[in-house]
Write a structure and sequence with these properties.
Layout (H helix, E strand, L loop, with lengths): L1 H41 L1
């Protein structure tokens, strides 16, 4: 029983970490795109 709970917790943590990574990746991509547009606008 305890082992199953630990496995569930690990899976949940992995999901949270993956969501967090996805959010950061999306944010960085948006940031990079806006910087690129700004650079092109200046040129």
């Amino acid at each position: 029983m305890k082992r199953d709970e630990a496995t569930l917790l690990k899976m949940k943590l992995t999901e949270i970490v993956n969501d967090f990574k996805a959010i950061i990746a999306f944010y960085l991509t948006q940031l990079w795109i806006s910087n690129l547009k700004f650079s092109l606008f200046l040129v």
